[in-house]
Amino acid sequence: MKSVLHRLAKVLRPWSHDSMLYEVTARCNLRCLHCYNVWKDDVGYASEELDTGHAFKLIDKAIRDSRCRQFTFTGGEPCLRQDLEKLVSFAAARCRHV
Known about the structure:
Elements: H1 2-12, E1 19-25, H2 52-64, E2 70-75, H3 84-92
Parallel strand pairs: 1-2
């Protein structure tokens, strides 16, 4: 069993940092029962978001400094950000799958 796990770890290791998730906002206008973001209504929880310029810097550094091949925007509800289209375009110019 140990040798199987060891071989499996060798195969999976290169993919361990293949994708990145960026929670661009905790805001959400829905109340989905399946949502993991149960703390979004807590007072003071991540009410501040990075402005567009700082988000660009974070995206650029994250993609540049990693082997990221897939970059995913999550939230809350990402579409509540007015600059989402700019952020997606910026990331798409740097990463193959956004």
